[in-house]
Design goal:
four-stranded antiparallel sheet, 40% helix, 14% strand, elongated
Length: 626
Amino acid sequence: MAQTKLDKQVEETAEALVFGIGRFLSGRPMDGVKRTDATFWRPGTRVLPKVEGRVSRSSYRAGWQRLTFRISTLTVLGTGGFQAGWAHRDATVATAREIWADPDPALAALEQTGIAAASTAAAGTAAYLALTRKRRELMREWVIPLHEALALPLRLPEQTDPRRYLHIPRNFSEDDAVIRVDVPGRLDFSKDLVADIITTKLALEGVTFSWHLAGRETYVTVKKTRKPPARAAFKDPKVREAVAAAKESAPVIGIGSAGRTVTVDLDDQSPHILVNASTGGGKSATLRCIACQMLHHGSLVFVLDTKRISHPWASGLPGVTYCRDIADIHDQLIALGLEGRHRTRVADELGIDADPKAIGPRLLILLEEVNATMKQLARYWEKTREPGDPKISPAIDALNEILYMGRQLRMHVLLVAQSATARALGGPEAREQFSTRILARYSLNAWRMLAPEIHPAPKPTKHPGRAQVVSGGTARETQVLFFTETEARQWATTDKKPAAGGPSPVQLLGQPAESLPDARNLTPAPASVPGEPAANATAPPPTPPTPTPDSAPAVVDGDHAVGLRQAAEHHLPGITLAALRFARANDPAFPGPAGKRGAELLYRVGDLKKWARNRPRAATNTTDLD
């Protein structure tokens, strides 16, 4: 039995020796306990779960580093010890005899050596403390507190060394500094919470977070953003040069960080743009900036403004159709929907290789204060529709059609809202058509609703003209380009390129609906001559042409009777043919026919004018959302 126990001890000793040699050569800890995530080639960054006790620095080293240190140490000790062993033996014996014979010189030498060693140690300690003072202050004031705050959200073991995963430079508050925080690869933490803790504990402002969560190395980098300029005025020569060099389909929105020009290409990036801002956030200035650039390149602009006074600079400009009353906005949206359907047929006939400009001029629809406008459109339809008509306003349906097919048809919606909820825009599907969103003076709820993919939400600012342009999953802080009303009006008519089509002018309150499918009738009128008054809504109607036998007014009971087309063109300025036909089918107060000319129904001019004066209209200059 004693022999068996001895054999077992020898076997265990040999096994321990083999394992020890294996750990030595593989660079693993000699006690066999793995405390960090270090491998043979990669240093460790964090302590493994369930590891207790203090973790030394050597546990974070890569295996090849430990192996190199071990072999180097053995080599130095082996060669130096062997050479010095014999010489040391003889010297020790001689020295001992001398000291024994006369100890005073030895004691004096020992005293001098001690003083020199103490002085060297003190100087080295002072130098070390002086050189590492800022680093120790960084650790004490910033790194350790941040580590204590992040340990719980990241679920880090207590033994984790903060220096292994918090890479914070001493100049982290400067503009060019980059902060890196290694995060666990399990990703079971809140990115918003981690970002808030980093910005709060390090007292950071105006920073961006870049999350790198794919693959083995998972980390987040924090960089300071270079602020846009305090003001981006069109009168600045550099800004004016950037606007002049912009593509026809990519108007300049503003100037971003580091002086970069921020644009949105309506053909390649986003066919529609959503502007979400509270009162005083610069919504009208943003629309003015984009609209005047589009007019400069020959686009046609339709301003649908229930506030009536949002864009006085655009009134009377060639190429601008300004609708102020809800009835006119309703009719204009229906007409634009018909134009969109017509362009669809034209694009189908032209084929895939046709020039996009052959479809017609580019159309820009400015829809102001959508929260109030959509409600007023619904109310207007409730008052005018008859049993059997659809419950949803055809104007809202037309707007949704334009949103879904605007890119190929060169029709773009620039929509303004104080709160761009899905309900206000006609559903979440309609809101998703705005891939570019401009947010200013936004609330946290508005950011989470319109840009949920960006973490964390940038802090809003009250700086005039400052906004966040969100596109493609990124947010760019931008100083929106500012045009004065005079500058916008001049730029809209300077070097104006003619739109595709014929010379027919755009009426201020819209064209007859049946002429809208023809792109020629959407072509702007030539620019007005300087010094002459521009066309406006109160301009007298054009002089009727000389009557022909087919178009001459009929006389019924002593009053002239005309068809709806003649009434829209010559007697009822501002009311479209589509509106008259719609009212004839849906408005009980619409006058009855007074006669016929062939298959065409005729109506007394007096009755039509009386109906036009008394037709139902929604209240103007209101933002009531109830």
